[in-house]
Amino acid sequence: MRLNRRHFLAGSAAASATLGMPAILRAQPSEYVIASSLPLTGPFATAGQMVAPALRMFEALVNEDGGIGGVPIRVTAEDSGYVPANALANYQRALATEPNLVMYFGDSTGFMKLVAPELRGASARLMGSTSFASELADPVNNPYQYLPGPSYEDQFDILLQQIADEGGSSVAFIFSNTEFGRDPIAHGRARAEELGLRVVLEEATREQGADIPTHVTQLAQSGAEFCILQGYVTGVWPQLIGGARQFGLPTRFMGTFWGMENAIADRVTAEAGPILDGYAGVMPYKYFYDPERGPVYERYAAFQKAAFAGTPLENYMPTWGLQALFSLTIGIEALRKVAEKGLELTADNAAEALADIRDWDTGGFFGVPVSMVNNKIGTGRVYQYGAETRLFTPTSDWFTV
């Protein structure tokens, strides 16, 4: 009997089913690729330039642990300049040139929204990012995109609840006029009303080079007891606080994740004195200097001391780096679960494995086990900066929104 290719494949499939083996046996690739866009230039270049080395460290340590199912990973990064269209072009190029691309790390809320319609069929990949955009926490409409912590709306919920618990009655929202900045404002307005808080000012600013005196004047006229700052990374938020202090305002300032970098607060304190003393905000993770930082942070510290000697990363990992590292870590966790089952590393299989992560010990990023619910991890705690200690220290327990 002559055996053609069709009969051979049919017979092989039947034999595989009988033996309980995968119906289709694919040769393992030589590597899996995790590509990324980072703002290596532009308004948030400082953050991007410090995240890039963290991605190289991530690649090395994942490969020390056997990669994904025994296959090493390669991490790439391209500059976006914090321009969503640039990041989209980077993603499209990665799809076209990297046949073993299994995950992507985006640089902004704007990019994540722009790329969402393209994550279909063969163009879909598991995708983390720098963003905590609230609308991404939607497994129905955005099944492949996930948040490595609480959404911006969740973070506003936490801060507004803290204000209410402290007996506050009025709050101002000052935010950058970006997708990033505007994200939680409408939700925050509604949540404040539920808590009996008056929102007495909503003020949009430029993401860089904001007119500080004008915005501080608006804040003074509002009479807000508290002010939540949203949508800033390295600039504007310290200047706003400094301007308010020069103006003699007693307003208490709070921020969300991207305004919680200890190195920035230390630099401001060194240059301008204790203007940030008492500034508080939401941080999903432990700081790198946490005395109980856990085995993952300890491993990072050893790597950094050897690989990044003489640089700012030798003894410290900024919050921006921790966010990127955890985003990729949970993505790798999902992909490894897929590989352990002998399944192809498709976006659908990865998304399903991601959604099944429950009560996971992250090795030190969080102080409690965490779960992926609605494509986000809604866990964090409030930290407050002390100008004397030069540290952000926790003022609340870990909790989940």
Structure characterization notes:
- The structure is a single chain.
- With 401 residues, the protein is an alpha/beta fold.
- The chain folds into 2 domains: 32-150 and 292-370, Rossmann fold (3-Layer(aba) Sandwich), CATH 3.40.50.2300; 164-283 and 382-400, Rossmann fold, CATH 3.40.50.
- It contains 13 helices and 13 strands.
- The chain has helices at 5-19, 45-64, 84-97, 109-115, 152-165, 179-182, 185-194, 212-222, 237-246, 262-272, 294-307, 319-340, 347-355; strands at 32-38, 73-75, 78-79, 101-106, 126-129, 170-176, 198-205, 226-230, 252-255, 280-283, 379-386, 391-394, 399-400.
- Strands 6, 7, 8, 9, 10, 11, 12 and 13 form an 8-stranded mixed sheet that branches. Strands 1, 2, 3, 4 and 5 form a 5-stranded parallel sheet that branches.
- The radius of gyration is 23 Å and the shape is globular.
SSE blueprint:
Layout: H1 5-19, E1 32-38, H2 45-64, E2 73-75, E3 78-79, H3 84-97, E4 101-106, H4 109-115, E5 126-129, H5 152-165, E6 170-176, H6 179-182, H7 185-194, E7 198-205, H8 212-222, E8 226-230, H9 237-246, E9 252-255, H10 262-272, E10 280-283, H11 294-307, H12 319-340, H13 347-355, E11 379-386, E12 391-394, E13 399-400
Parallel strand pairs: 1-2, 1-3, 1-4, 4-5, 6-7, 6-8, 8-9, 9-10
Antiparallel strand pairs: 10-11, 11-12, 11-13
